Amino acid sequence: MPTALTKGLTLRGLEVFTSLSRTGSVAATASELGLSAPAVSQQMRNLSSALGVELLDHSRRPMTLTPAGRLFLERAETALELLRAGQRDLTQLDLTDLSALSLGVIEDFENEVTPTLAARLAEAMSQCAFRLQTGPSHALAARIADRELDIAICAAYPGNPPGTVPHPLVRDPYILAVPRGTRVDAGLSGLAGLSFLRRDMDQVMGRQIEAYLGRAGLSPPQRFEIDSNQSISALVASGTGWTITTPLSLLRAGRFAGGIDAHPLPGEPVARHIALFATDDWTGPIPQQIATLARELIGTHFLEPGLERMPWLGPAFALLD
Question: Which CATH number is 4-90 given?
Fold first, then answer.
């Protein structure tokens, strides 16, 4: 028999609470969850009423958790994770009838997402020839366009690989990365004393960043052009220069992360979008099932730690469905 406590608890209420605890903003939570601001406020009123305590301190901006809210947050996050795990168990990949699968995944995910994704796929395939390749987005896009891959997880850009169906995964906004302690009050023009670390122009990121600089009327001297994310991170951390990157890339900085400060990119918001592309001769639920699994892994390994480190990203850094 339900008690008074459980009667007022809803899945949506827990989602609203965990989002508000991270963003501190009703507007940001409404945007993140696709709700109206009044609906967000009502969900929090319902949850607080069910628990009999205030979970958020509304007198502060951004809002902060009360002591009771901090205590409940851990339980709420655990409950949501258990519910998501149950949902995953009900939507297990069924690849038993698949005879071959060629998958390409961008290098951004090679340390966290790709190994787990490969293991989960292997578990679901009993008689399947499985081929996995990693590489930059432009190389994977070319391979799937040439039918060398069945599925590719890579950055989307105008003129997506022909003959493919996209399944959006994550919006990855561009941000500013500077050596720790560097002042950014004067914007990008105030960083003239440091070298600009360009991405390889063959990369989707390199072209998108250069387009942003052009629209902003900026043309930093051509001194560095690098295709290695780790090398760029090392140079920023050493004080050599600054760069424009994304949360996904910055979170791969490893031992260099402590020497890097991240800030919002001045001017217009701009982002790259990561998607799963499947050749259009694929039918059935398999591409969407793999996309769902990829979103789950990206959320765990990148979205959650990224928003914890850079809460100002808010809904700009988000999974896409």
Answer: 1.10.10.10
- Cα–Cα distance measured from residue 75 to residue 83, given in angstroms and rounded to the nearest whole number: 12
With beta carbons less than 8 A apart as the criterion, state whether 188 and 301 touch: no
> What pTM value is reported for the model?
0.71
Please give the radius of gyration of the chain, using alpha carbons only, rounded to the nearest integer.
Answer: 22
CATH topology for 175-264?
D-Maltodextrin-Binding Protein; domain 2 (3.40.190)
Please check whether residue 184 is in contact with residue 265, taking contact to mean a CB–CB distance below 8 angstroms: no
Contacts of residue 255, Cβ cutoff 8 Å, sequence gap at least 6: none
Angle between helices 286-298 and 67-90 (to 10 degrees): 160
Backbone phi, then psi, for 304, in 5-degree steps? -65, -50
Q: With left for phi above 0 and alpha for psi between -120 and 50, is residue 164 left, alpha or beta?
A: beta
Residue 41 neighbours by CB under 8 Å, 6+ apart: 26
Domains 100-173+271-319 and 175-264 share a fold: yes
State phi, psi for 253 to the nearest 5 degrees: -70, -20
- The DSSP output letter for 185 is T
Fold (CATH) for 100-173+271-319: D-Maltodextrin-Binding Protein; domain 2 (3.40.190)
Q: Contact at 8 Å (CB) between 9 and 43?
A: no
CA distance 139 to 162: 14
**Each residue of 220-279: pLDDT tens digit?**
888 888 888 899 999 999 999 999 999 999 998 888 989 999 999 998 889 999 999 999
Using one digit for the tens of pLDDT, what is the confidence trace for 161-211? 899 999 999 999 999 999 999 998 888 888 888 999 998 888 888 999 999
